[in-house]
Amino acid sequence: MNPLDSNALVAVIGAGAMGAGIAQVAAQAGHPVKLYDNRPGAAAQAVAGIDRQLGRLVEKGKLQPDAREAISARLQPVDAIETLADAKLVIEAIVENLQVKQQLLLQLEGLCGQDCILASNTSSLSITSLAAGLQRPQQVVGMHFFNPAPLMALVEIVSGLATEPAIASTLYDTARAWGKKPVHTRSTPGFIVNRVARPFYAESLRLLQEGAADCATLDALLRDAGGFRMGAFELTDLIGHDVNYAVTCSVFEAFYGDFRFQPSLVQKELVDAGRLGRKSGQGFYSYAEGAERPPVAQLHSQASAERCVVEGHLGALQPLVARLRENGLAITERAGKGLLRIGDATLALSDGRLASQRAREDGLRNLVLVDLALDYQAATRIAISWSADTSAEARDQAVALLQRAGLKVTGIADLPGLVVLRTVAMLANEAADAVLQGVGSAADIDLAMCAGVNYPRGPLAWAEQLGVDYTLRVLEHLQASYGESRYRPSLLLRRCREQGANLHD
Ligand code: NAI
Fold this sequence. Notes:
By secondary structure, the protein is an alpha/beta fold. It is built from 20 helices and 15 strands. The chain has three domains: 10-187, NAD(P)-binding Rossmann-like Domain (Rossmann fold, 3-Layer(aba) Sandwich); 195-280, Orthogonal Bundle (N-(1-d-carboxylethyl)-l-norvaline Dehydrogenase, domain 2), CATH 1.10.1040.50; 307-411, Transcription Regulator spoIIAA, CATH 3.30.750.190.
């Protein structure tokens, strides 16, 4: 560990939401901090806001009063950029504009010492471009915090083409010393989080567009079965559709129109209509006074479920068997191909094929496909889909079986990979490509997705748990169904399958 000395002066430029949060983090870690903004009075206003935040922490008993005073004493708003000359680290969090940021860095290079680290909190601009044209581009590095900076643990340390590895390493150690969870990444579009998270939104938008279910139902499935804190529609309503759509467009364009990142017409419609989410009072949901969330679709069965047959190992669905047993079901186990039978119904974990296609190809009658859950013991809801020739009675029996395990059952249209499975497979696919292209290590990418966007499990760890082979098969089936390059599996998954290796190897 070689962090910056805590006596070193940290300068933060831009006293908006991010700059104020970053200044607070650095001051709480013991650094003297100067906060500068070119809007007169903005820095002083931000420091007063930080002081109020600290006051709230004191009220909640999370901060001692003398610690608050010490932190506030270390925070100094300044109105002249020249006063930052002694800084050992400058973090800029000004407007997201390449030319304006380049101009600022040029000015700082002339002002600050040779050894001063010039960090940018940019969420989408190239660190390589920001550093180009400077005398000392090796001093420039991305330090990408997440909003709100005092609460979110992740910091992406972004190296541009010229960034000196020792500088990136010092900043990484410094972020650690500040109580953060840093990850190393390279200056590529979206860095780690804003790239790997794209399928989380994209697959839900696609499912909605293709009539799988309504927003409230798809959100509930990602939460109650997938273990995600929020579904994609409630989350994008919170982020703001203008912001989320702009990030998708910028990543899509930066990858020269790679269809993997194709923006959604459904979301564009919302932006065009000014339905930006919570902040405008209407997004996918209404935030008007007294507005209620639409109900979540649910199937109910009156059929009885007393016994079932488990044929072979059910793959990721296997833990459901224990839950069925705990709920009093009589279970007969015999050899077979991973099927669960009750009455006339045959249940199986989805493998990414349409239910109707799988029923025909595998010669299965009354097929009901079950979605992936993060944890079949803890899940409260699960999605199913069924083949066109599945009888209503058989479907009813399948619902009764899952109900018996204490699960709410939601039926969705017959689309490949249901909801949680295709979302997780696509997240893992993007994460695998990011590893393959050296954007980050498998461990750092998983950490980034858990600490930066609160995923319940890293996408690569999740794929490994499901089996690389199975994850790849799901993606191959998705690609075969859609015939689009969007679903092409990452070469890393194929290589791991050929070599019998794991993604974290
Ligand atoms: P903001 O608009 O709240 O604050 C920007 C501040 O910079 C304003 O107070 C403005 O007066 C000041 N400013 C603009 N140009 C300046 C200049 N040339 N010199 C000095 N001060 C200047 O913006 P926000 O949301 O805090 O974002 C700042 C940066 O952080 C952007 O690069 C953004 O992409 C990035 N970021 C934003 C996140 C977010 O959730 N808002 C998350 C992570 C990164």
